[in-house]
Amino acid sequence: MSPLVPVREDLTVLEGYHSAQVPAKVRLNTNESPFPPPETWREQLADAVAATSFNRYPDREASRLRAGVAALHDVRAEEVFCANGSNEVLQCLLLAYGGPGRSAATFEPTYALHSHIARVTGTTVVSGGRCADFTIDGAEAIELVERAQPVLTFVCSPNNPTGRAESLELIAKLLAATEGLVVVDEAYGQFAPHSALELREQTEGLGRLVVVRTFSKTWSMAAARLGYLVADPEVVAACMQVALPYHLSAVTQEAGRLALTFVDEMEARVAIVAEERGRLFGALAELAVEVWPSDANFLLFRPTSHDARKVWESLVERSVLIRDCSSWPGLEGCLRVTVGSPSENALFLGALRDVLGATERGETP
């Protein structure tokens, strides 16, 4: 039998983006909402699904959904592009503006899909670093984009997996320093004190500002796979040009459109998670770990006298699953925990105290 056709040589060194999927009673590893969507939303979606003509293609323009997102952000529908999760939004941006001979800038450590999708699309990645507190070094960032002139500059705010939101001043300076697009990934934006959307009418050059959001986190819709961007209509048109026809299913469109009628419930969930984030931060600060402040729905921490991988494994043995970041460049020895429900957070803290205490007592954790 003849060998299979080899994949592109530049893809052989890439690894897919994965999060461990192992059985656990407490799952705090993928930054999902700990709360399900409102029951009324489920009922309305069931009615919408029952009325769907499944023998027909969905609305290619996702008109009603885009109109709903536009109303949420007080923009025009032609400034909104929707896709299957924010990752497909990022992919469409890179398909439209990246490619061979072009570059994208990231500031590491940050969300791995920015550089991963860039490389998959043949886009060169240029990377800057971060300060000790994991915020972007403004001077270094400006020097990087002025020198490299990337076609896309990715700013994850709040940054995943470190948690801090970047200042609006920094984003404005990046826009002034590059002729490319500045893509602010706000997957966790509703948890943060400010949004880059506030800049849209304040500074010259903001036609090159792209803000990306998702329904996965605060809208409790990770299973639906729905994300969007708000940007200049020219950017939206470019993304629609490279997206596959009918890429957004009728059910996904209805799920998102109906969710937008539950803004008050979403904001209440955000408030609960933010309160739990503060409680969790305070509890971690009393343990033998270094924990960083967060503007998102997760916390990054580093055990100070314990091997992070062994801590992660010991938590899994206690049916608590968090994210092991300890082998990631720039995050050596770090772990990340999603802010869960009060009961989930209590179980996590109890298990962590047990693991750290067992090690201090010389026991097998």
Written account of the structure:
The protein is 38% helix and 15% strand. The mean pLDDT is 93. The strands form 3 sheets. The chain has a 7-stranded mixed beta sheet, sandwiched between helices. A 4-stranded antiparallel beta sheet has the order 9-10-13-12, with helices on one face. It starts with 25 loop residues before the first strand and ends in a 5-residue tail after the last helix. By secondary structure, it is α/β, with parallel strands linked by helices. The protein has 2 domains: 119 residues, Aspartate Aminotransferase, domain 1, CATH 3.90.1150.10; 223 residues, Type I PLP-dependent aspartate aminotransferase-like (Major domain) (Aspartate Aminotransferase, domain 2, 3-Layer(aba) Sandwich), CATH 3.40.640. β5, α6 and β6 form a beta-alpha-beta unit. The protein is globular and about 55 Å long.
